[in-house]
Design goal:
Blueprint lengths: L2 H25 L3 H57 L1 H8 L6 H23 L8 H22 L8 H32 L4 H22 L2 H5 L6 H21 L2 H6 L5 H28 L7 H81 L14 H32 L9 H8 L12 E8 L2 H8 L1 H15 L8 E6 L2 E7 L3 H17 L1 E3 L5 E3 L2 E8 L3 H20 L5 E3 L28
Parallel strand pairs: 6-7
Antiparallel strand pairs: 1-3, 1-6, 2-3, 4-5
Helix pairs in contact: 1-12, 2-4, 2-6, 2-7, 2-12, 3-4, 3-6, 3-12, 5-6, 6-7, 7-9, 7-12, 11-12, 12-13, 15-16
């Protein structure tokens, strides 16, 4: 189809539209149609107002139930973190009492527990985990590092030279880790109870179970220091142990059978019975035996590691009790959320049915009352406005009407085909065939336009990235593998970009990230994160070989417009050149320089040529 024929069709459609509109304005709409639309509109509005009120209340109930469920799930993660931090004391105690015979096994077990603690702390701070602010976790991580340093220092000392005070100090330093973490637990508990007082009962009971596990483990750690170095039990350790025992019994009296009664779930009965039998029977009995041996002579019947292994087994019912209680609480909240969702869904469905009936009545009246001519009029206007809607051929009409709709259908198909080809050509012209990113041409069109996007009105930051030594990858592994490297590199960068960030292939192994409305510091931070990600990653080629990829980055701040865009590219390119000169695999910012030439309009005045642009140094 030639441009002349397209213009002719467009002009013809505009004339038809004007003629139809003029005819409609002369004759006017039928009063019956106006009354039908007014009546249906009033009924639609009244139904919508009523539905908004009902749906709004149902949605609030669902949102509150979902928020409570998510809050309790994140609270469970925090309590699990407290439990793992407490559990790390077990292998630490074993290492502190090790004489070197099983040092490798004990150290491997300690490293595994430390890895679990680090992983749960990362989950606690993750936005989709517990979402704990970094400021709250900072003192916890600092105390954890200090406690580990003390444990490793004492463990590195020969057993015969380890002092009781040094071992006891290391254990108490591990106590401080959990004590410091209690501020995180209190923060989350306060948030949940403040947002919904109904959560106070599961929140406080869950914390009591968590404290029960902590103090249960602490009473064993309080006597392990003299056992580790085979010395008599000091009076201070005995006093601390008795005080902790009192705290444990107090917590046990607070929960006890109340957990089963309050939740009405027999799943708590098994761990309650196991805790009574194993911890309060076997575990505390083991503590009493060792205390008696320590007060008498200091000759213990077991090593620190043997005591730790046996005693930790008696703590498992306490962990299971906390988990079972939170399982029951979360299950109840899940049922509440599901019920709220069902009510919300049913309310929306009923509302949609009512509104659909009203719309159906209007459409039925429109179809059977006003006839095919009215639909033909609207069809021609829709085509004139490039709204390529689907039209149905109606058999009951006369042959003239069928031919009219056939002609409209043919015209619609022709316009739809043209629009589809135009879209395909536009995508091919603006997309890089290898990476699927925006190409240089499309990027320049955006950069040279003052009105490309509202979000870019306040300036942009540009990151120019160049894959280091890419030619050597092509020379060594071939161009197909080089293409694979570029694709894998792009895939690793995409998730790190924001919604409004533009990612384009600038040419060869060079890529551009255009960040609208951002400070240069944020752009530098993003470039550094991408650089670190690429440096740490390894790309596996089709033959199984791995390639390490690094990149150099130039970052500049500027604005859009024909000449401003050119200056921005030159500034970023100069910064990239400095990054390569500084050894590659680094990020460099364009050095600020006074602008000698203001940004000119896209079209220079007649008879004048634009001044030469000053590039970034």
């Amino acid at each position: 189809m030639t441009p002349g024929s397209i213009n002719h069709i467009g002009a013809t459609l505009r004339r038809v539209k004007l003629q139809v509109a003029r005819h409609a304005s002369c004759g006017g709409d039928h009063s019956l149609r106006r009354k039908l639309l007014v009546g249906a509109g009033i009924a639609f509005i009244c139904t919508s107002i009523l539905a908004v009120g009902v749906i709004g209340r149902s949605f609030d109930d669902y949102r509150r139930a979902r928020q409570n469920l998510r809050g309790l799930e994140s609270y469970r993660i925090i309590l699990s973190a407290a439990n793992l931090l407490s559990a790390e004391r077990g292998p630490s105690n074993s290492v502190l009492g090790d004489a070197g015979v099983t040092h490798g096994v004990l150290r491997e077990r300690l490293n595994a527990f430390r890895a679990r603690s680090d992983a749960i702390l990362d989950q606690v701070s993750a936005p989709f985990g517990a979402g704990v602010p970094a400021d709250l976790l900072k003192p916890v991580r600092a105390q954890l590092l200090e406690a580990r340093r003390q444990v490793d220092g004492v463990a590195a000392t020969p057993l015969e030279r380890r002092g009781l005070d040094d071992v006891q100090s290391s254990i108490e330093s591990m106590f401080k880790v959990v004590d410091t973490f209690q501020s995180v637990v209190a923060w989350k508990a306060g948030m949940l109870t403040a947002s919904n007082p109904a959560l106070a009962e599961p929140v406080m009971t869950g914390r009591i179970f968590s404290d029960l596990r902590e103090f249960g483990g602490r009473i064993g750690s309080q006597i392990v220091a003299p056992i580790a170095i085979s010395q008599p039990l000091p009076l201070k350790n005995l006093i601390d142990s008795n005080r902790t025992r009192g705290r444990i019994l107090e917590l046990w009296n607070l929960v006890g059978d109340h957990a089963v009664a309050s939740r009405g779930d027999p799943r708590l009965a098994v761990p309650l019975g196991d805790a009574e039998r194993m911890f309060f029977g076997q575990g505390l009995g083991l503590i009493d035996t060792l205390i008696a041996e320590g007060r008498k002579s200091g000759n213990y019947t077991m090593t620190a590691d043997e005591f730790t292994v046996r005693f930790v087994d008696t703590l498992k019912p306490l962990e299971q009790l906390r988990g079972a209680f939170l399982d029951v609480a979360i299950e109840r909240l899940t049922e509440i959320r599901t019920g709220a969702l069902v009510i919300l869904t049913v309310t929306i469905a009923i509302t949609m049915i009512i509104l659909a009936v009203l719309v159906g009545l209007v459409l039925a009246a429109q179809r059977f009352v006003f006839g095919p001519l009215l639909r033909a009029r609207e069809a021609v206007i829709a085509l004139a406005e490039d709204r390529l809607t689907v039209f149905r051929h109606e058999r009951p009409h006369a042959i003239e009407m069928r031919r009219l709709f056939d002609a409209i259908g043919i015209l619609r198909d022709s316009l739809a085909e043209r629009a589809s080809l135009t879209r395909q050509l536009k995508v091919q012209a603006e997309t890089d065939g290898l990476t699927g990113l925006m190409n240089r041409r499309a990027l320049d069109m955006i950069g040279e336009s003052h009105t490309s996007s509202q979000v870019m009105a306040d300036g942009v930051c540009l990151i120019l990235m160049d894959v280091d030594h890419f030619k050597s990858i092509n020379d060594r592994h071939g161009h197909l593998e080089g293409d694979r490297v570029l694709k894998e590199t792009i895939q690793s960068i995409r998730p790190m970009l924001g919604v409004n960030d533009l990612f384009a292939r600038f040419g060869g192994e060079e890529f551009v990230i255009l960040i609208p409305g951002r400070d240069i510091g944020e752009a530098l931070a993003l470039a550094e994160r991408i650089r670190s990600r690429l440096q740490e990653s390894r790309i596996v080629l089709s033959d199984g070989a791995t390639v390490k990829v690094t990149a150099s980055f130039g970052v500049a701040k500027g604005s859009l417009g024909q000449f401003a865009w050119r200056r921005l590219i030159e500034a970023a390119d100069a910064a990239l050149y400095r990054a390569k000169s500084d050894g590659r695999n680094c990020v460099r910012q364009s050095q600020p320089a006074p602008s000698l030439v203001p940004d000119l309009p896209d079209e220079p005045e007649s008879g004048k040529s634009p001044k030469k642009t000053i590039a970034a140094q």
